[in-house]
Each structure stands twice: as structure tokens, then as C-alpha cells.
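Researcher: Here's a chain I'd like modeled. Treat it as a single chain, no partners, no ligands.
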Amino acid sequence: MDKRSEKILALAGGIAVVWLIADAVLAQAALLQSLTALLPFTAWSVALAWFAWLRQRLARRADEEQRDLALAKAARQTETIFEEGAGKSEAFSIARSREQFEKWLVPAFSLLIAIGLGAWAWRLWAGLAQPASAATDHLMAASLLAGQAFLMFLLSRYLLGLGKQARLLRSPGVALGVTALASVLGAVAAVAANEVYPRADRLAARVLIGVAGVIAAEMSLNFLWELYRPRRGKELNYATESRLGGLLADPAAWAKNIAGALDYQFGFKVSETWLYRFLEGALLPLVIFQLLVLYLLSSLVFLGPGEAGILERFGKPERDLHSGFHLKWPWPFETVRRFEVERVQSIEIGFKENARKPPAATANTLLWTVPHYEQEDQLLTASAETATGEAVPVNLVSFNLHIEYLIANIRQYAYTHSDPARTLEQAAYRTLTQTTASRGLFDVMGEGRGAMAGLLQRRLQAEADRLGLGVRVVFVGVEGVHPPTTIADAFQSVIGSVEEREAAILKARAEANRVLPLAEADAAKVLATSAAYAAKRTQIAAADSDRFLKRLESYRQAPSVFKTRLYLATLRDSMQDARKYIIAASPGSEVIQVNLEEKLSPDLFDLGPKTEKK
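Model: Modeled as a single isolated chain. C-alpha cells:
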């Protein structure tokens, strides 16, 4: 064995370490889940490259030591009783160290790699359940991953070629090849997440984590297989070599396996026929043609209804695109950033999106004492109480706001801020805090809620225009305002007391409104009756006085006539209801008898006009 293999392994290990550090730094900056899921593959390549370098170095040093011992033995031509026999190694020789290394450390290392990959994959898979932050720098990550894939592919092919003579080089070659394929998948996912499909990054992360878990399981099985399988002579342990990874990193092995299987099944050399050789030779051009067609398809841009885009050439905006079909240069020369300008987008303020389900007893009614959401923010409102000392009395209230907006200016929305939605959310929190701090508790919880929503929309729009977000706020809805659930019971007691006080005040006002008008009406009635009586007595007295004067004047004119008239009127009034008989005869001795038991004929006696009795 020569030192060329050690040098190439050291070079591969050093390059893998550099890329591991670069991936870790970019993963923290770009927040791409696929880039984080790529770290186990890069670390796997680093570990196998340096471990293979150590095994190759021990093998070379052991061979050199054996050659030196053989030369020394040939020079002495004698053998003492203290020299070991043929086939035995000295206790402190390099060969002895290599034997112990191959016997104990190689299996232990393969088991350690399996456990490390499995634990890392499990931790990453559990991390996918948490909500991911908004990723950035997609194109930078895609460029880095593309360069990483190309360089690791070259190193993998070189090591796999050397592995035909020295199989120890095959395990790091397979690891580098799988890492190159994982880098390609990460680059494609970064571009797709930035251009077409935002969930591509999460999907690629799931695939990479699944592959890492499968490789960890395979390494565990390899450890058990190499531990118990019988060996012939000094056959080495190849538990660190992944067979499944070899199928991905070395597709040429597929053709050999298929050719061997066909030869075995048909009983002759099918792999040497002209048809098989034609298909083998035409397969690569066909694959290249398909890849070229897929690459040229990146020149076609289809913007759906309600979408708009910005054409970027080498990252610099060139022109705006509207809904429809467009042509551009293929990636990465020109790219298109898509925006749904006609879709109403929304953000939630004051609570987390994953809402809790209310208990079954209150499924249709949300109470203040039951948490509406998993986490709710508490904001300050003004208090009408008088401050005592240095403390300022305030109230804590939970707000549930729903804000809807449209993209009004795609250039400002795309380039002014790296995450305009997040910026708008923070501006909404600041605006809400400033608005609630200047309003009272019962104002925001009562009839002033609608006015506060309109004020919030105007202030938030002004803040968005000041920041240059390029959005138009179309709706701000205050969906819920309630006290914190921890003090809801006490707050309800206070509110109940306040409501009872207000009810008593309103009841007293209603009683006052009922009694006062009746009292005023009675007083007015008494006054009107008194005035009418006074007017009546005055008029009657005046009429009596005037009648007396008129009679006096009549008496003075004709006293006898006045007296006779007055006498007759008095006689008429006093005898009005009595029966009267008029006898037209001179008085004398004649006696007239009148039978009063029967009614006399009116024709004989009632000669005067008939009047009705009152």
C-alpha cells in the first residue's frame, strides 16, 4: 500500500470538515430544515473518511514493518529461542496494534456510527413537530449545496475507483456519494421553497431524516453480521460500509448485478449481446437528455390568477410580471419571485394559531375562565382609579385580533424587508399596545370596541406606509377581549358588583321618572281646579251683582209691575209641581166638588199648553 490513498482520504476528510462547518453556520442563518437534516450525512462522511485514513495508515505501517522484519531476518539467517515463530506478531509491534484495532475498535466504531446516526435522526424528526421559523437566503443555500454536491461527487467517484483495489476506501466513497445526492436534494428543495412550493424544504427534510434512519438501521445490522459471520484468514471487518448507500452512490453496481442476474437466469452471457450493450450505451444519453429537458423547463413561467411576480436576473430585479405565461432564461440566470397580490392574507395578534378545543360542557360557549387558546398575550389598559404613591394603576386584558391585508406594492413588499409579514405583525403589536394603553378597561370591553378597531386599522395602515411594507390593511377585527383566565373569577365578581350597582341606579332613576311626572300632574290638576273655581265664583258674583243692579233699575222704573211680576214668578216657581185648577166663575155660595180620585180629562181642565216635568 502507498501513501496516495492516505492523502486522498485526508483531503476528503478535510474538505468534509470544511463543508460541515459551512452547513452548520448556514443552517443557523437560513433556518432551512433540509440544510439541518443534511448535517448528519456530512458528519458521517467526515467520520468515515478519517477512520478509513487511520485504518489505511495502520495497514501501510504494518506492511512496512513486516517487510523490514523480513529483511532483518534474512540478514541474520539465524533464529534465537526468544524469537517468535512464523505467523505471530510482537507484543508492541504495529501489526499487533492493527490486529487489536481491527478486532475491537472497528466493530465498536461501526456501532457508534449506527447509534449516532439513529439518535441524530430521531432528534431531527422530533424537531419537525415544532413550528418552523421563516426561512431566508434560499438561493445562497442552493448555491452552496450545489457546489458541495459537485465537489463531494468528484471525491466519491475517485474513492470508489480506488476502492476496486483497496476496499477500505469504498466506505468513505459511499458516504460522500450519498452526501452529494442529499446536497442535490437540499438545493432543489431550497429553490422550490423559494419559487414554487414553500413546503418543499420540510418535505426534503423528512426524506433526508428517513434515509439517515434507514442507514443507521443498516449499520446496526452490519455490526451484528460482521460480529457473528465466520471469517477466512485475516479478512477485514467491513461493517462501516453501507450497501444501501452503495446502491445510491454507485449506480454502475446496479448494472453489474442486473447483468449477473440475467446471465444466471438465462444460462448464457446476456450482458454480452448486442441489445444489452445498445441499451447500456443508450441509457446514459437518454438520462442526460431528460435532465436537459427538465432544466430547460425552468425557462417557462406560469403565473396563476391573482398572482404577480418579479423577474430577477442574477438576483437583480428586472421587470414585473402579471398573471399568465412568460419566458425567461433558465435557472440560475433568471428567477421569478411569486406573490399572491389578490389573495387576502391574514395574521393573528394576541394568541397562537393552534387553538385549544374547549371542554365539552362549554363547546358552544366560551367563558372567561376557560383558556381560548394555548397561549394568549396580556396588554395594559388605563384604569380610572386614583394612583397612590409611585405605582400607576393599570389593567391587564387579553386581546384576540384578526388582521387582513393585501399586497399593494410588490417591489416594496419584496425588497424593503426580509420578512414583511413578520414586520407587519410586530407593527400591529406595537400599534395595539399604544392604543390600549390610552383607553379604559370598560371602553375596550364595551361599546368602544368598534371604534377601537377602526382606530387600529388607520394607525396600522399609517405605520405600514411609514415602514414601506407595500401592503393595504383591509380589515382589523377585535374578535375577543377578556381578562386573563387566572383572575377571571375575581373579575367576574367585580363586574357583577358594578352591574348590580348600575342596576340599582337605573331602577331608582326609573322610579323617579315614574313618580315625578305623576306628582307634577297632580299639582297641575289642583292648581287648575283652584283657578277654575276662583274664576267660577268671580263670574257668578259678578253676574249676581249685575242682576241685582238690573232689578233695582226695573224696580225704580215701575215698582208695582216689578212686585207683581216678582210675586207671580215666585208663585210659579213654588207651585210648579202642584196640580192647579182654574175656575172661570164668580165666587158666591155655589159649592164645587172635585173628585180627585180619577184623572180628569185634559180636554176639560188642562186647557193650557202641556209641559214636561223636569
